[in-house]
Fold this sequence. Notes:
The chain is mainly α. It has helices at about 5-30, 45-55, 55-90, 95-100, 105, 110-125, 130-155, 160-165, 170-200, 205-210, 215-225, 230-260.
Amino acid sequence: MSHLYRTLIFSVIAAASLLPLSVLALYAVAPGWKFPDLIPAKFDLRAVHFLASQAGPVTQHMLSSLAYSLLAVLLSFGLCIAPAHHFARRHFKGKALMEGLFLAPALVPSMAFSMGVHFLFIKAGLADTFIGIVMVLTIFSYPYMLRALTAGYQAFGEEFELCAKNLGAGPIQRFLQVDLPMLMPAAIAGGSVVFLVAFSEYFLVFLIGGGAVDSFTGYLFPYLNSSDRSLGSLLTLVFLTVPVGLFVIIELVVSRMYRRKGIY
């Protein structure tokens, strides 16, 4: 692939990513921007002032969303380690069927999935609770982590574990000192998808949380549904800062860690 071709592809992807954000940024400071004006005729900072006055509630809802999303990532990682290892290392009858069943939550429409889960959570006393939201987001999004970890185990083979076992390492030591460092790229990839699904989910959080648990999507939705595009655009930009900032931090931390180990 030539350098010019790669530059062209990168430019198209960058433009497709940045153009919608630039429109949001303009709407945030130009609430009266209408067709056919290419450039807004009037700018004001009303939405910025409103956001500054609502810093407390915005932060509270953002932290709640961040907390249940990160917990969903950790819980899905813990749940998926054993089945991912089994699917990657073992061959048995019905393996494809079992994998399909484990991946089913990602294939079922969220509306059908959520109604059944909501009924069970009401019976179990988990509806309208923070723990209920963490559990439903974990159940809904763990297939992404499972698929990533299975691919991670398949990538480096079983020889490293056997070597550590022959040297006397126990199961926990083999996992912490052999499997986990080599699984880290797959875990980060799967965790990123789980986090994005959990952090941006509105319907499941609203249904299971019942409005009793704070979420930024729940706070944002009324503004997106209103005629005030300025506030909706500004809050959407604030919403984007969390996953983008988190991915930048992860990239910096992981790159630094692997450079110290001389991996790349």
